[in-house]
Fold each of these.
Amino acid sequence: MFSLVKKSLNSAQSFMSSREKILEAVLKNQPQTTVLPDISMFKGDKNDIIQRYVDVFKTIGGSAFIVDNLDSVKDLINEHFDVTKRIVTTLPELSDSAELISATVDPHTYEDVELAVIRAPFSVAENGAVWLTDEYMGQRIIPYICQHLAIIITAESIVPTLHEAYEKIGLGSYGFGGFIGGPSKTADIEQALVLGAHGPLSMTVFILK
Amino acid sequence: MKQSETKDHAGLAEDFIKDEERVNWHDGALWYIREKRDIASKQIPEWEQLREAASKIKSNVISNLHEYLLQFEANLTKNGIIVHWAQNAQEHNEIVYSILKAKEINQMVKSKSMLTEECHLNEYLGERGIDVINSDLGEYIQQIDNEPPSHIVLPCIHKRKEEIGELFHEHLGTEKGLSDPTLLTRVARKHLRNVFLTRRAALTGVNFAVAETGEYVVCTNEGNADMGAHLSEVQIASMGLEKIIPQKKHLGIFLRLLARSATGQPITIYSSHYKKPRKGQEMHLILVDAGRTRQLGRTDFRDSLKCIKCGGCMNTCPVYRKSGGLSYHNTISGPIGAILAPNLDMKKHADLPYASTLCGSCSNVCPVKINIHEQLYKWRQVIVKEGCAANTKALGMKAMAWTLSSPGTFTNAGKAGRWFLHNIPFVVNNKLNPWYKQRDMPEGPKESFAEWYAKNEPKR
């Protein structure tokens, strides 16, 4: 009798989809509900935030410049990068010296970009990372495929920690967003640090005062 | 894959430690990462509170997983991501295959995903004519050497640069003898860039999946996940059920802990939040059980599902550092692997909870405060009770229980041991005694504490 019941249960189960079976097992096995902790006390310190950002960003292998305006950015680009190669940007102000990124062309066509210059809405002092969304990137692939990445932020947009960063981001209406904290790197071969794994070989941040 | 099915952890570790120079290097390299983790964590005054908060959030996830999974699924669907559910490795692999087959794709690029390693996805697809390339440099190196990763964050940490140079010479045509890490990385960069540009499908793992928004976060240092994903027309993400977190703001807690615990970096270079497909792109996400719901039902072991895969417990573990990840014969090695693996196959992994000194260092560095060393101890009890322990271990335990249960036998055994060590040491200092391997036996004391105390007890 018992084996019959078991059999019919088994065959009933076989009609269930994997989704239903997994969800049923989760419901059966999960313990009694515990509450979420309050995390509102996690906050950073705003003191000396620009200098702290610059210091951290340099330790992770980036270069940072505090500048007064976009003309200084143009000068620094001319000084530090090979401007004979392909330079792309999302800033109309730079369109005299760089090609404007198209949101609609095939992303593969950006394969030969030497330098991409884009704005970011803010950066994070504790870890040096900038926050970008597809809207700021022009195309999702841009900050990853370029050989060198340059980001323009305003000094007042820097936040102390990731807690303030996520407060700023909120739920977000982007399709893709990401923190980028320095040039791509690897230490997979004997723990020797190498800058420029698959993404950019260098990352520069221009901080507009 | 080169993987020994017959030897246990002790046997495989024995092979690894034959090369003393390599063991010492391996030990030192991992300890250096542990030290970097310490420096990074000490710069955050609220570090311990962050660990506590992370642990509590993960407790909440485990206790509400059913609801969060439904919420996550609904939000993914709203975002235009196609959701799949897989009960086991086989189903997972079939789903990936069917997605690729529908698009007539026979080449895929993959970023780091321990789950797909666990599922042996590459082999499964390979047998069906689909070529997969691992794009994380360490995983790529392991793949061309036909070996599984030995560490979840540093897949080829057990290899020396000369060995990698030799592999590159054989597979990528580099000059013989080239072993400079920068030059080798440049060669791989060039080769893999061409892979990214020519693959129509990209698969990534998942670090965190936000139930509240239906987005998932992938962390890399190399940028390989993004290079693959943003150039693909089909993007697939594979995740274990336990990767869910409730709310977006919780990412602040986990991303602050993850890289600092893993490598001592303040954040991984890329923390990418995937939410909606690009125009013209198709996005799939596969939710995989593969033993996770069973582990959820094990009261003593369910907290292992809190793991965020930082590898901190491996870097600090004296046994891992001196035996190498491959000796654990499981995709996830080290202390965390040793508490996850017995759930998958208790008989096959019965040796792993014994690959520990129970020193507790793993639990002390764990960013989500998993009681790893306590679970290792508890698994030993379960394994013996279920009759999965190796015979020598079971016999030894019985002999010890007999000796320790009677003061008379304990005293006599101690006396006998001391007598042997003093008078005929070769009886214990020989190859038949496993404890003697790579160690010298200590000089035995002249008397036991009980004997000393009897002589020196103050006369009242």
Amino acid sequence: MSGIMSNIPMEAYLIVSTVMFFAGVYGFLSRRNMLTILMSLELMLNAADINFVVFNRYLYPGQLDGTFFALFAIGISAAETALAIAIIINIYRNLKNIYIDEVSKMKY
Amino acid sequence: MAEQIIFYVLAILIVAFSILSVTSRRILRSATYLLFVLIATAGLYLLMGYQFLAAVQISVYAGGIMVLYIFSILLTSHAGDKAKPVSWKRLLPAGAAAAVGLAVCGHIIYHNVNKVMSLVPFQEPTMQDIGRTMMGTDKYQYLLPFEAISVLLLASIVGAIMIARKR
């Protein structure tokens, strides 16, 4: 599989990741549940990972830089998700609510 | 030819499920759609020849993070709950921001990034290559970020336990 010249242009991958990123932007701005906002963030991070890997494969196929950026980004997003979900569960335990416009206890 | 068909199937799956995932009003369903997006992304990595990255994507994202999401969804909402409908005042700026960003980025990609049409054949990275790249200290080797990530993971484990424990 690796030796075959593929006819998929690089823009095709980039368009897919762009649509994924802006779906994430839309969800991030329009959702009200904290967990769905976090899931939209996950979509955006995943689109960035795809871009790293695509640029690595198409422009620098002999190196592994983009792959390793994607690996580290996956690790960091796992850590970030675990912390954010811990915070959200703590908020739910205290306020019984995870909607961003109804949680305003610490706002003022 | 087969690669193209696989790519278009994966691309359609990713686009459809990522849009469904941010528009579905049942939160458990949107988590499931996000899972499909992540698995299709692993398929894209396989298509480009990075097996290790696809395995990491499936085991960390689809295995670890999504289980965390589904557990916390089940902890914080009741099954069959629907999200309250979002007002137009909130939906309109979000849709406008996404559409404008998509238009600008799509324009840039369509007009500027058409230099690379075909893949250069390449040696798929073996496990030895990945291990040496991860564990070396030379140029283009990543021991220091690897150790930084391990410290970060330790710190976030401690932090998550501190935040979420019962007092």
